[in-house]
Batch of 3 targets.
Target 1
Amino acid sequence: MSDVYTFDPILHQGYLKGNHKGKNMEEYSFDPITHEGSINGVVVPSVTSVLRKAGFLNYGSINSAILNKAAKFGTALHRAAALDDKDNLDESTCHPMILEYLKGWRNFRNAFKPEFIGIEKRLYSKKWMFDGGYDRLAIVHQMKKATLVDIKSGNPEKFHASQLAGYKILIEENMPEVKIKNRWTVYLNPSFSFGFKIVPHKGISDEREFLTALHKTRVLRHEPAN
């Protein structure tokens, strides 16, 4: 089992559990400024960068100022949600619009009562040489199943299914005792009923599509595939 790297979006710091060094042990590091992870000094692609470079997502036609604003809002919402899940949120530090979106996340929690196994965890794959950070891994008590949850404040996109498939690969490699039964994107928006909408991803080919995208990015960079 690979070592687990955790990035705390609140403290904006990362650490490798056990901080192992030595023969047959990988050294993983993550730079929060460049958002690049590396294994033994070799930069590895993230789940999102794999999909972007493979052409699954393309925001080239959207004004960069709009994209930056959306990205900052999403980051702030994720930080607020992570703090709220840990009962450590000071609402006075949040923009009113963040709190409006956060109501939807709270409604989701109240409705499904998830028991969080992981919150904002970053993992890397020794087998496939990529990394990524998932939002939530939880046991949803109504179904008693391990559920991977991705929080979004934007619109549904086709690549979201492949994105969660990439995270699933990371989790099941690092935590072989966990078998993901559900992959959900939870979209938050005050205009939705109860402020949230769940889109489940059930495609049996999603993992294969992600690994195909990973191979494609390596071919583009002339890297050897595993």
Target 2
Amino acid sequence: MLSNWISKGNTIKNTRVGARRVPGAGRQVHWPEMEARLYQKFKALRLLGRAVNRKWFTRIGKKIFTEEYPKQIACVSDSETENENAMKIVLGCTFSDGWFKRFKSRWKLSWRQRTNVAQKSPAEKQDKVILFLQYVRRNSIPRLNEGLFESGRYQRHHILNMDQTPLPFEFLSNRTYNIQGVESIWIKTCRSGWEKRQATLMLTVCGDGELHIKPLLIFAGKGTTPAMQIERAKYDDRVNVQFQKNAYSDEAITLQWLENDIYPYLRQDSSNIDIMPPSLMALDVFSGQRTSSVLRSFKEHNMVSAFIPEGCTSLLQPMDTMVNAVLKVKICKLMEEEMDEHPEFWEGTCNVGERRVLMTRIVGTAWEWIHKKKGSMIRKSFQQAGLSIAIDGSEDNLVKIKGLPSLAIMDWAEGGLDCNLNWQGKTGSGQIDFSLQGDIMDPDLSDSEESSDICGDYVLSSELISLDPAGFDPSLNIT
């Protein structure tokens, strides 16, 4: 053994520190050409978003093997059939589990859970993402007689993201540990039908990561009976509650939410109750919050509406990129802890009203927790989406869009202000004319598949300090 080490002295010296083998040691790859082609085909499919399973590797691998190694193919008698003349093809590679395990190790492949379902890859959405970032930058430039803050004309606690997410009455998992060998795996619900019942949770987070606005729970029904008034008194005061026929956030609830919660919060920083400080609201193109009435309300309250481009909420909306997933895990954990502490009640005599009361308490606790423990995560989500960064470009490196490693916010001066929708309700630079009476969007075309036009102005360009990126003076004092 010593003589063997001496003969390989130079090889050992050049081996990476900590390596357990010298280069070239271990089992050699028997069919390198086949594996290389198989890996390239796999990469091509994943770039197209196709799901690839174990059977695909075997099926395609066999085809490639027959092309690359015709001499390692044999026809033998098939003893598994009654036909004595039956033959079957045997390949030199059996594509066994052992081979597949080593193949995955060599090419660094792993079996992954799906994280996103989409018709287009992030790279195909790049133009929309850049257009959105340019719109946010353009609308962050201070206008005449406005102050300059860390993120332009907005204080960071005036940069908001509003989102709706379904909240089920039962958080039932599709997986559970069970005794081996049992074929039927069942999971009990507290009440029949609760696994299909759900509420809508309407949330607004702010760019400073602090808790400023209560969550809104929307339950199905009218909520006007005497019994409901008694139930309402039991709701957690950290949460607002509304009732709607289908537990749906429609235009009426959106307007009420703005008037009762969002605008009063923003007025707190204004010395004149009639003058609203400039604010930025990032939100998706959900139909209940892009009607003419809602858009006019934004405009009248000095709020710029930044609608996330279609199909890009998982890339640009802070609630979707970080907050929602963490919040729902916390809500689920709190619900499980409640069930563990009082199983005889929640699996026995509780009714739907008591469940609603519990949901308000758990949502209130989770909402406080995520701001107290995960405030830095919320702030980071706004920065990575390009919503709360400096307007002089010094913090552009903080923008981190999943799947788009290098983005540049260039030529942001061209386009409209205050709203990035067009008259069809599609995102772009916008072309809505707020001077029109009645609908500023065509309700019959709001669901059109036509792409949005990149044009339109909402206010005169003279109202800006500067619309020229090169002409903006970054030396202005930051308040």
Target 3
Amino acid sequence: MYRDELLIGSTDAIKTQRQLAIDLVIASLYGLLSKFTSNEDTCSFECSSILLGALTKEIDRRQLFSPETFGRASLARVIETLQEIRSPTWCSQQNLQYGSGYCSQHNCNLQTHIEPIIADLRKYSEGLALEDLVA
């Protein structure tokens, strides 16, 4: 009987931990949208605008805010989905003096902002300790 109770408790704890991790991802993505909207911690208006547009398109394309998207997905699959988010590349014009200039690739990208979310998610996916499962 004790073994069955532990198994049921373990399953519930794993489901709860998984849902908390997914909620963290969703909240973090909303946080990035807010960050790019307010120009917070970005190098320029143009940069935050491009990243905001790209993130918005990727969220929509992958339906990341739809409850069905992560319904039965493992945390490993959620991490893969985040790693697959595409980031645009663009150039910043330099040395525009006297009409001559060149274009250098801009360094900012979405993955720089997504990587901390993935790192947090990995902490959740490391597993639960046995003492977390025993009531």
